[in-house]
Amino acid sequence: MQSANWHSTRVNLILFEPTELGRPLPRQDPRAQHLCDVLRRRPGDTFDVGVVDGPRGKGTLLEVGAEALTLSFVWGAPLPPLDPLELLVGLPRPQTARKILQEATTLGVTALHFVVTERGEPQYAQSTLWSSGEWRRHVLAGAAQAFDPRLPLVTWGQTLAATIATRLPPAAENASVDPPRLLALDNYEASVRFGACEIGPARRVILALGPERGWGPGDRAELRRHGFTLAHLGERVLRAETAVVAALAILRARSGLI
Amino acid sequence: MQSANWHSTRVNLILFEPTELGRPLPRQDPRAQHLCDVLRRRPGDTFDVGVVDGPRGKGTLLEVGAEALTLSFVWGAPLPPLDPLELLVGLPRPQTARKILQEATTLGVTALHFVVTERGEPQYAQSTLWSSGEWRRHVLAGAAQAFDPRLPLVTWGQTLAATIATRLPPAAENASVDPPRLLALDNYEASVRFGACEIGPARRVILALGPERGWGPGDRAELRRHGFTLAHLGERVLRAETAVVAALAILRARSGLI
Questions:
Q1: What is the pTM of this model?
Q2: What ipTM does the predicted assembly reach?
């Protein structure tokens, strides 16, 4: 739970699932250990809390029992919705996926889709990162870091085409809503640099990033058919997780959030 | 040496110091092992190379001896200079410094100063990261990743004031040269969001980022006295290394490089 927050005297938010709020917190729960041993809270002390996908608030440590802590909570107003920013990523190796899950959540993406592409390694979808539910730990860590309890929607193992079809309703149905801005990072067939791509009036952005070996011709055809602009991040070769942070930061700056 | 390059079939650049070029490469050198075991190069095969702070080129594996590899090189034209982009960071814990050394180099900073500030932990400067020279490994890894053999200037353990004084000549001397754009990240006393800061015509940018506990009042006075604009990165709390990548990406996009 501990991390080096830049420029903040706040410790990370301590997150609870909605179903946990009425119950005592077992002493062996990592959050209980964090509260008592790292934050050194004593009965009567308060701390910052959030409900997963709910509000932030203040917790009070009421009692430290042999088996469990008794806590009480006061909740703030609901948080205003985040601007929709969805990330489609070609399934990376699990170690890279962990970093992207955490960093993209910290930067406030609203959905994160790890998709199967032509040149991806399909076996990455079989990792225990996904099957054991471990992925959610990294998302929770990113949310706690950002001091925002809202989690992105996360999917994995669907094809690029199926994911685009799910996220983009057919053009006919789409006519009545603001079309999203569709951007795909591509170092080989980009027509424009990423930093020069205007977002325009779109309130929703979908950003696609290929797998380690890049997009295949079928992937590119699929992206172009749906109206994605292919853009590059310059001449320097970045790791996937660095490219994610760089591109999301540029988009968030464009939207006036950074 | 291996990493998950996003969207590149290129492997990382293999870097040599200028003094190493005439000599055989010992078999136990990590680069020899990487060439033979990971890249599976055989006599006659080529690979991408760079000279530290020099050109890129092609290497050829001539012979695999019992003790050493014999290599030959063909060098390209000198690389055009990088736009000056200097980073001043309040000395972070060593684990964070390692990430910043690598990521900032990958993103092409030309200088990296880890400075002593009012609220920093001065003992971080005593870490073996600095005294053993380990820091240079992370810079080399960042350069190899970026496919660019040029390394930033790195300093550590000097005060913020001393570093600014070294990097910014007095105003009188400075009158004849383009003044650099001076930006400091600050989540508490920022007057403007970072994404709204224009770079203007400045070709040189100096970006300052405080230590984990933030700038102290004396640090801020020093920054303001020299003309730094205090800017914030929005409401979400970022780790120091994420803030570095986000801010550098936004600056590089402003300069037309991303």
A1: 0.93
A2: 0.92
